[in-house]
Design a protein that fits this description.
133 residues; alpha+beta; 34% helix
Length: 133
């Protein structure tokens, strides 16, 4: 496990900042302690510094994972967030918008408004398409 390089840190933080905006600092400096990001096998991990110090005695080839896997770096050096990061990002996410109930409602909103669709609703429609009247 190693610290992120400058380029890896920039790419990872840009991806996380798309969802948390200025709250990225709150993700690192949490009330229960300081957290950091580390790299292991092309994956970015979010780990407490306290646990990181305890794991320093384990060799890198024996270490499977440490902390929470936030995502993976692709071969083209892009960062893909994993679903495991959602629990940690959710308290810091800023999402403005309105949940749309129909296309007609979307057409009535302000042009600068953000409309959020719940994708499970679309899947539910497709799943029960035969029984709809």
């Amino acid at each position: 496990m190693r610290p992120l390089t400058e380029e890896e840190m920039r790419v990872m933080f840009e991806k996380i900042a798309k969802y948390t905006w200025e709250n990225l600092q709150l993700l690192v400096d949490r009330p229960e302690g300081t957290y950091c990001f580390r790299m292991h096998n092309d994956r970015g991990y979010y780990v407490s510094e306290k646990i990181l110090k305890l794991a320093a005695n384990i060799s890198g080839d024996k270490l499977v994972s440490l902390g929470m896997c936030f995502g993976k770096f692709t071969k083209t050096h892009k960062f893909r967030l994993h679903i495991t990061a959602l629990d940690y990002l959710a308290p810091y996410v800023k999402c403005f918008g309105m949940a749309a109930e129909s296309i007609q409602d979307c057409r009535k909103v302000d042009p600068m408004a953000i409309v959020v669709f719940h994708q499970a609703d679309v899947g539910e429609y497709v799943w029960h398409e035969e029984t709809l009247t």
